[in-house]
Amino acid sequence: MTNITVISYEQIKIDSPHYQAERELRNALLLRPIGLPDSAWEMHDSDSFHFVALDGNDVVGCVVLYPIPSTPGHLQLMQMVVVERLRGKRIGRGLVEELIAFTRAEHCREIVCHARQEAVGFYEKLGFCVYDDPFDEAGIVHRHMRYKL
């Protein structure tokens, strides 16, 4: 008998019970491994849209979508992560599809992201395009990417 994981996706607010689990996931898998303190990227959390992937009631993936104040209709995809045991199971794809559907419904024009070099192919498969030169962010090579709506 095979265990089948059924993942659901949900947009949450920072007062959601899932928000603390989202924070812990981001801190444990994105910030601590590169030596950044917990909450180092939370300065925009209250102004952002948060999407989580749930395995039952457990947060197993997340992504933050930040509206760029200087450019209405443009948002930045940030802090995307899926727990290691479920990577490669299309959960990240599901999270991005959820936020793209959200941005379309909100009549936004563009989503941008700073993708780690090793994640460029993942985003390209979802319709994002690389622009500009590679750059260093937190000691890791990143690429500017965009998705036109």
Structure write-up:
The protein is an alpha+beta fold and 149 residues long. The protein has helices spanning 17-31, 91-105, 120-125; strands spanning 7-12, 49-55, 58-67, 74-82, 110-116, 129-137, 140-148. It has a domain at 7-108: Aminopeptidase (3-Layer(aba) Sandwich). It contains three helices and seven strands, in the order βαβββαβαββ. It starts with 6 loop residues before the first strand and ends with a strand. The mean pLDDT is 93.
- Beta-sheet strand percentage? 35-45%
CATH topology of the domain at 7-108: Aminopeptidase
User: How far apart are the first and last residues' alpha carbons, in Å?
Assistant: 42 Å
What class do helices, strands and sheet pairing give? alpha+beta
Give the number of helices. Answer: 3
Determine the fraction of residues in helical runs and give it as a percent range. Answer: 10-25%
Report the uncertain regions: none
Total beta strands: 7
CATH architecture of the domain at 7-108: 3-Layer(aba) Sandwich
Name the CATH superfamily classification of the domain at 7-108: Gcn5-related N-acetyltransferase (GNAT)
Q: C-alpha Rg, in Å? A: 15 Å
**Sheet with most strands: strand arrangement:** 1-2-3-4-5-7-6
Give the overall shape. Answer: globular
The mean pLDDT is 93
Blueprint of the fold:
Elements lengths: L6 E6 L4 H15 L17 E7 L2 E10 L6 E9 L8 H15 L4 E7 L3 H6 L3 E9 L2 E9 L1
The gist of it:
This protein is of the alpha+beta class and 149 residues long. The chain is 24% helix and 38% strand. The protein has a seven-stranded mixed sheet, sandwiched between helices.
